[in-house]
Amino acid sequence: FTVLMGDQVDLRRDFIMEHAAEVENLDV
Fold first, then answer.
1. Is the pLDDT of residue 25 over 70?
2. How many Å separate Cα 5 from the centre of its chain?
3. CB 12 within 8 A of CB 6
């Protein structure tokens, strides 16, 4: 999860938006 730990907010935001469906299915 290096992308989530980085300072690239735009890239991180795009990553979350693209994987929003998968993230919702995870037990965080």
1. no
2. 10
3. yes
Whether the CB-CB separation of 3 and 11 falls below 8 Å is answered with: yes
- Find, among 16, 9, 6, 11, the residue nearest to 24 by Cα: 16
Sequence spans of domains, the chain: 1-28
Shortest CA distance to 13 belongs to which of 4, 25, 22? 4
pTM of the entire structure?
A: 0.31
Cα separation of 19 and 28, whole Å? Answer: 14
Cβ–Cβ under 8 Å, residues 3 and 12:
yes
